[in-house]
Amino acid sequence: MQVLSTKSEFREHLETVRALGRTVGLVPTMGALHEGHLSLLRAAANDCDVVALTIFVNPLQFGAGEDLDAYPRPLEHDLELAEAAGADVVFTPTTSEMYPEPTLTNVHVDRLTSSMEGASRPTHFDGVSTVVTKLFNIAGPCRAYFGEKDFQQLAVVRRMAADLDQSVEIVGCPIVRETDGLAMSSRNVYLSSTEREAATVINRALRAGAAMIEAGESDPSVIEAHMASIINAEPLAALDYAVVVDPESLLTPDRLASGTTVRLLMVAQVGTPRLLDNLGVDVP
Q1: Which of 59, 90, 170, 281 is the most exposed place for a label (fewest CB within 10 A)?
Q2: Does domain 186-277 have CATH number 3.40.190.10?
Q3: What pLDDT does 274 receive?
Q4: The predicted structure's pLDDT at residue 65
């Protein structure tokens, strides 16, 4: 496994790979790898000839007062995990390598970024779209793998790639969970043992919302209120939002139509971290 730290090295390496007729699977991450990330690497290895992992804690997607400085950066451990999961090359740039001058150009995706995470973190998605566009431009034609845990981010990246005719196929991969249902996240390390137990309420609330839909409830506001009530009953959890949305537009329908699919999305703060989770549900 090769570890490259400059844009030119990474670009030239993948250009050489493609010149030999080999396909590239790109897995962009901020490091602090867990089983969710490793599942993306394994999916890329299954589909593509060469797996390229990027590890970069992107300052543009952190707002004022967020956890940029505290974000975990266990690089050596990440590299060990990455190699075992099938990574062939890892791009580990510094901030000055990615942004040698102050950034005057940002990539903004309209509509999909105005609600949920976009409302709670107004600069977040411009930071994500900008760094992902840079990574796509550096990596060149490839398949790029993203987890469904950050479902709004996945929708934003998909729309961005389509709108800008980027030479990248976006592949969404299922959420990987702990045995008790908690979605795996790099920020779970911030949880105390008590908070870790309390955090399972998020998945329980999502499953309760799904059960309502499967039982015939078609009013999104009723489902959202029920999910919120479950979170609010947990003293250590503070609800940010609980919504029922169309998986493409991310808008909440007036009623749930039979035969469609909706996505239940939720964020709650437990202790220090804000924890995201979501669940897809087929409407009977």
Answers
A1: 59
A2: no
A3: 95
A4: 87
